Amino acid sequence: MNSAALPSSHSDPSVAPASGERLADRLADFLSRVSPRGAVRFVSHAGAAWLGYDAEHFRRGDDLLSMVAEEDQPALRAVLAQAGKLGRQALNVRLLRADGVSLAVTCRVLHLAGAGERAELLFAAWELGELVRAGETAAPSIAADPVTGLPTRPHLLEQLEELARRPEHAFALLHMDLDGFQKVNDALGHAVGDRLLAEAAGRLVAVLRASDSVIRSGSDEFALILPGAANLDAVLPVARKVLAAMQRPYILGDSRLHLSASIGIALYPEHAADGQQLFRCADIALTAAKHAGRNRWSVYLAEGAAQSSRRVVLEEHMYDAIQNGEFEMHYQPICRAATGEIEAVEALMRWHRPEEGGISPAEFIPLAERNGLIGFLGTWSLRASCHQVARWNAAWGTRLRASVNLSPVQFRQGNIVSRVREVLGESALRADCLSLEITEGTLMHDPGEVEEVLNELRGLGVSISVDDFGTGYSSLAYLKRFPLSCLKIDRSFVRDLETDANDLAIVSAIFGLAKELGLRVVAEGVESERQLAILAGKGCDQVQGYLLGRPVSAAELTHKVESGEWRLAQ
Ligand code: C2E
Ligand code: MG
Ligand code: MG
To answer: Is 192 found in the same domain as 107?
Structure first.
């Protein structure tokens, strides 16, 4: 998800959790595996961050009970002790945060495996209530900025100049911007905006070491200076922690807000010779992170220019390519996990350039999003796939569904509901045979507006899937508020499954929780029989991947179905 070609920021090589725990670590919910006595075996990254700790803070055997308020301990103890017998239970507790604030949460305790003393339980919390402050928080020392108590931009430049006088002392600068802050400010007023900034500032301070600095460099921008961080190995874990901390819900009065952040990273002396220049590098990287879709970090790339020239060429050719009919739809089966029968097809766009062959949608879709052609391409892809699937259904007497990807940009263009209505009308595809795939990023962008559009789409009879679940801001709590039908689990997670198939109880628990929210679970990128068997056994409803069928042209799909190679569900 990061724009620089660097190792993923999602998995920390120093901890190697089992595969179930890896999925748990990607969610923004509090998930912990415990014994009936409350001895902790695993706390998810987000769970630790909720409490203001690193994931590494917790050790096997730590006491879950000590993480909740004393008054709530007896109730939790009783629920844990009975979970093996009673299955799933819910209760309200207050979690104790490192900074003395307690978080009221609704949690669920589920039985995962085993019996008696040896049982394994899942403690899952996804509903946040109030923040309860215990005692005073420390008064800010050099409170240059009245809102956050942090030093401001002049301090930043001074400090950068100071540090950059000694090239032998490497350091990193992270320039961070809160995604969507302006909307919060506009919608809820400056008082709420200020409280949000103060909370974000507090989280940044909590994440960093005492020797690091946090500076408010602009209205919703913060600069983080990490002395001694000479390379990306030192910086990326911090960037990851910062992103996770910013993603935790903000509870401000009656509002519960979800934001994310974008980070630009620059290293001294590797990227710049002085403080000013370093700041510019971090800023360029920040812009790249925002363009790449926000909620990510990006590292300053000196060779960025080379990448952008290919971008320019492709962007220019896109106009002609549309005229020349170089775009085509391919279709990939989505099958019932239990039987392998095809229930739906995902429509995937292809661009065949005569000069260089196929270009991946992963490369050209972001360009189309930037140059505005996505509206055109997106409508074309929707129309082509609805017409095609309607023709197949008419010819074969089936109810095959079309699953069509919608870009976040397309979603925000405002006419998506009328487009869908129009295309359904002209193609005569049944509305319940169309599913639209959106990303977590779309949901994040402007939850109120998105909810309204999704409700209108649902009103047309169309269903909505969340694509690539586990790669963005992934939270079961967050999904609950939207009218969604289906969760597509990202293939990077499916790939992990096989490497450690021993500890999958937590995976089926997560699938179970998704179902509790009324969601169908689809696994993407299934490539082996073993993955298929594991997923089918864990309550996954549908599967998609090379094992079941690669994306193929409409003609090829027709051939495979009519020759009996691919079987459709009736
Ligand atoms: P996606 O929606 O997650 O689509 C699934 C991608 O995974 C497809 O890549 C598919 O070919 C690939 N895939 C499927 N099974 C396997 C497998 O078993 N192993 C591996 N390694 N890969 C598998 P593709 O076609 O390159 O598309 C990439 C992305 O481009 C899509 O990801 C989607 O986000 C976007 N995209 C494609 N077509 C459209 C479109 O018409 N509109 C929009 N907005 N986005 C599109
Ligand atoms: Mg998709
Ligand atoms: Mg996907």
So the answer is: no
Ligand 1 contacts CB of residue 472 (under 6 A): no
Protein residues placing their CB within 5 Å of the ion ligand 3? 467-468, 524
The reply to whether 9 falls in a domain is no
DSSP per-residue codes, 266-289: EEETTT-SSHHHHHHHHHHHHHHH
Count: domains in the chain = 3
CB 173 within 8 A of CB 268: yes
For 74, the token pair is: 């007896």
Distance CA 389, CA 27 (A): 34
Does ligand 1 lie within 6 Å of residue 467's CB atom? yes
Q: Tell me if residue 513 falls in helix, strand or coil.
A: helix
Residue 526 is predicted with a pLDDT of: 96
Report the CATH number at residue 341: 3.20.20.450
Residue spans of the chain under pLDDT 50: 1-16, 130-143, 305
Q: Among the atoms of ligand 1, which is closest to the Cα of residue 382?
A: 41
Identify the domain containing residue 39 by its residue range. Answer: 19-133
Question: Which of 90, 91, 267 minimizes the C-alpha distance to 175?
Answer: 267
542 neighbors 337 (Cβ within 8 angstroms): yes
Residue in 261, 233, 227 with CA at minimum distance from that of residue 247: 261
Residue 1 lies in a domain: no
Q: pLDDT tens digits for 19-68?
A: 677 788 878 788 899 999 999 988 988 788 888 887 778 888 899 999 99
